[in-house]
Amino acid sequence: MVTLLRETSLGISYSLNIYRIFLISPTANKEGGCPFVLKAKDDIEDMMTQLSDGHPITHDVKINMFNNYLLETKPKKNQEYLSNPQLASAMKEGTKIVHAAAENNIFTKRFLSGSISTDEYGRYINSLYFIYKYGIMREDLLAQHKENPIIKLAYFPFELTRESSLIKDLEYYYGKDRIAELTDFKNATPAVKAYVKGLKDAAERNPALLIAHSYSRYLGDLSGGQILAKRLKKHVLKRDVINANWDSHRGLEFYHFEHILNHNEFKNLYRQRLDESPVTQYVKDLIVAEAIYSFELNIALFDEIQTLSDSNKLHTTLDLDDVESVDSPIKPKNGLCSNGDWIVGFATGFATFALGLSLYRRISERF
Ligand code: HEM
Q1: Phi/psi at 280 (nearest 5 deg)?
Q2: Atom of ligand 1 nearest to the CA of 302
Q3: Nearest CA to ligand 1 atom 33
Q4: Cβ neighbourhood burial of 225 (10 Å; 0-12, 13-18, 19+)
Q5: How many angstroms does the Cα of residue 226 sit away from the middle of ligand 1?
Q6: Residue 9 and residue 39: Cα distance in Å, rounded?
Q7: 280 has which bridge partners?
Q8: Of 66, 72, 175, 342, which shows the fewest CB atoms inside 10 Å?
Q9: DSSP 280
Q10: What angle do CA 45, 47, 52 make, to 5 degrees?
Q11: Separation of 37 CA from ligand 1 center, angstroms?
Q12: Which residues line ligand 1 (CB under 6 A)?
């Protein structure tokens, strides 16, 4: 339904050039805005059949094909490339509300508080594996369209490729023996299949739309994703700064971009490339709408994990203690200290000595 509203609102308001207010604004209807916000699909179809012949939306438009219809009939006047497209800024602005929804999703909130299990996190990266492999990574679709003038500008396979990181993480959580089963698309969950279908549909409608999916995933992984990685390391993998495995990326490879030295610089470059993309106003609007859709698909992934978790239907991951002890052969055991422990021990000893010395001086000054 959200998709339907998104497409319908986008189509109708496109001719009025005010689509952004309609896309997902909860206040749009209250303010006498979008007439579709509270309508069921059947109601919208009824309304569509009542439009006059002269209306830009004709009777025989199939609701779910609305973007296709627009691509064929877009008005000539908006065909010029924008001189200052600001595509990244438009996507950031356009996805603000849905970004907040993603942050406030039950599963993401639990993730942020560090209370998810490895079974849940394992499901998450298993889902992402399919999204990156078939959708936006090696990725079959982005690579196929890498010569598209918009994709080309922000195509960074060397820096961003996640497929092998995801395989490493899956091996970490489930063991090598289960990789074939976990990465078989036949075993993908409904939300994953819907996401991959969304990516394929976008590529068919207009390959430039893939940039919206690329933006939401990669900039998300380099932004909020990095916060989530820290929570994961500390609360789920239970690593401590004083242990030898603190600097290990095992189990966290997905969030580790080894070819990006400075995340902020890279994100700025990525945004700058998007801001210079050769787009018309029409394509820009479609891309922003697609970015919103991409967030919705991600939220659906989170919801699915929560539902599977609530009904105990998640695959079981390996015992983390066993995995971590393999990961960290020099982890302190039976009184043997790691490098971190030596530093803490030395610092504590030195502080105690300094305190003792200062007390001794004060006492001796009195006498
Ligand atoms: C717990 C969940 C999340 C948190 C805490 C979070 C947090 C953040 C933060 C702090 C930023 C700003 C970083 C900066 O300015 O450099 C950001 C940016 C971003 N996030 Fe999220 N985020 C979350 C979920 C998501 C999800 C689910 C997606 C989409 C898949 C996403 C996509 C993005 C994108 C695309 C940006 C870049 C915005 C821009 O600068 O254009 N985030 N996030």
Answers
A1: -90, 170
A2: 27
A3: 220
A4: middle
A5: 9
A6: 12
A7: 81
A8: 72
A9: B
A10: 120
A11: 26
A12: 88, 92, 99, 102-103, 108, 112, 215-217, 219-220, 223-224, 227, 267, 295, 298
Give the whole-angstrom CA distance, residue 248 versus residue 231: 15
Query: Any residues with CB less than 8 A from the CB of 44 and at least 6 apart, and which?
Result: 4, 8, 36, 63
- The DSSP symbol for 264 reads H
Cα three-residue angle 122-228-202, rounded to 5 degrees:
70
Tokens 């679709």 sit on residue: 141
The residue whose CA has the least distance to atom 34 of ligand 1 is 220
| Contact yes or no for 49/42 (Cβ under 8 A) | no
Residue that has been written with the tokens 């080894």 in this structure: 258
H-type helices in 37-132, by residue range?
A: 41-49, 66-73, 87-94, 96-103, 106-112, 118-130
Are 345 and 337 spatial neighbours (Cβ–Cβ below 8 Å)? yes
Alpha helical stretches, state H, 147-280: 149-153, 157-160, 163-174, 179-182, 190-205, 210-214, 220-222, 224-231, 263-275
Which CA distances in Å does 55 have to 48, 52, 73, 175? Answer: 10, 5, 13, 59
Question: Which H or E run contains 348?
Answer: helix 339-366
Q: What is the pLDDT of residues 189-232, one digit of tens each?
A: 999 999 999 999 999 999 999 999 999 999 999 999 999 999 99
pTM: 0.73
- Say how far apart CA 326 and CA 329 lie, in whole Å: 6
Q: Are 118 and 320 in contact (CB under 8 A)?
A: yes
- pLDDT tens, position by position, 302-322: 999 999 999 999 999 998 777
Q: How many residues does the chain have?
A: 367
